[in-house]
Fold each of these.
Amino acid sequence: MISKKEAIMIKYRVINKKIIGDGMSIEEALMAVDVLRTNNPGVTYDIEDYVWSPHKKGFGRDPDLH
């Protein structure tokens, strides 16, 4: 079983005042920005990192049951 600490990863998203795509590796994000900049040379795109985990907050012990 994978512990919560082991499952947390840094993911990357491409942004332009709004999120264009997320859940990417750094390689995927760089490739996406390259394609977007080629197709839209006058638009600025950035890559932002964020912490991602498959475990949703709130799962675990239910205090009402204990």
Amino acid sequence: MKSNNYNDKFTYLFEEYSIDKKNIKFLLAVSGGLDSICMFNFFLKNKFNFSVCHCNFNIRKDSKKDLMLVKKLSQRHKINFFSKNFDIKKYARKNKVSLQTEARKQRYEWFDCLLIENHIDLLCTAHHIDDNLETVIYNLSNATGFRGIRGIQVLRGNIFRPLMNFNKNELIDYAQLNNLEWREDSSNKSTKYSRNRIRLKIIPQLKKINNSLEKSVIDTSRNLSEMEKFISFQISKLKKEYVENLENGFKININKWKKKDFNFFLFKEYLNQLGFNYSQSDDIILSYNGISGKYYESEKFKLIIEREFIFLLNKKKNNYKINFSIKKDGTYNLYERNIKFEMINSSSLVLNKNRNVAQLDLKKVKFPLVIRNWKNGDFFKPLGMKKNKKVSDFLIDKKVPNYIKIFQCVILSDNKIVWLIDHQIHDEFKVTNKTEKVLRISIN
């Protein structure tokens, strides 16, 4: 009877969040630990359409036993099973992050691939009430803002957490009632990890102060979730008025935004939605009245301050770092434009003063040419001038906005700039009456 009560508790969240149990395909992330094995058993009992995936991070010597348990369980019940080995130590060192951070990044990237490749609707993880409590305390100690202390969401995007109705003791009881087999992760008892210290040391002390700690956190999480909806609504109103969509990102009129959001609370939350942390947001707000051109980066965006505007450029759409060789004539891609190199006789040349065209004396040019982004210290002698000029000074004189400067490229011959693309050629490479052949470069 008790097991049936647990099943009612399990299916409650499906009803609460309008999850179509009969027609949705689920992907269960199963580690082999008690929580995920309970989740597996609930899905099995309810005859849901699900597959199982398992990550082996090869951190513990006995991690292969976890894999074998999950694989055996899936095969026994004829459940589609996926597994992957990860070398997170290598990438954690390379990216200078903790093993936990790198493991989370890589597993969710893999989960996303599995969902797409196998046409699966929802990923399910085995987070529960105790995990939520740990997360809230951890985030509270790391100044993550109200979203951090709101805790783990039951449903976020394509991730569903069906055990968020259960505490750890209930899952232990359920597993024992159903004679489930699971693996114990020895690293869960190590206090060298922050979350373990919270679970093993801090939470027991907090429960001495408030023996209804879990309920208090759940109630607070619900209230903060409602507050988040209200804040998101207010941000959407400001975005409609003061955020302009660009081909490669967004443009924010920060002066006008400020009139409606004087202390920038909503602006900071908007930046947080775009992946900037609160420390970065504070710096951005302090900097916007300062020198133009300062920039900040999140995982997805590059933010540039440009007088009364802030530009947010999509990094995936605009991989602004360019450096490649041109070994012969032909047409090449430069960002979303085409740049064409052609060799013509001077007798058929018609001088073109368009900024998108460069006409150079072919004899003075040495292949391979290099196209790259300009950088501080670059200089050239603009056409008609007798002295060199820094590229940075040239762009300032031309009042080129900082959000465009990051895409500015130069073409070099033998380490010398021959063309500041879209602006001016180097005087030494100009066509003269002695020129026999011309290198014509055009961009559109």
